[in-house]
Amino acid sequence: MFARVTLLEIDTLRIDTDTAVHVFESEVLPELRQQPGYAGVLVLATAEGAGTLVSFWDTAEAADASGTTGFYAEVLERYVTIFKSPPGRGRYEVAVAELPASTAT
């Protein structure tokens, strides 16, 4: 399993963190679920606007594909006004994963 990690900062003068997370859940997540090899996502956020998205993928190729298919760039372009600066991104092999059961509503 592989992970794509995106580090970002929300411009909280334009949108609060809770609203940005809701936009991700309602608009981006359904599209993300349609990407080949998608295996899940963690969204980490602070009230101050710092955030980390960790998306999980079956293969390295699937993890990298959103960059080559244009999906990632299209999503960034669509929501560019909510970021303070362009997000950073990297790919990692998942060496250990022990996640708690989700408590999200």
TrEMBL record:
It comes from the Bacteria. This is ABM domain-containing protein. It comes from Nocardioides koreensis.
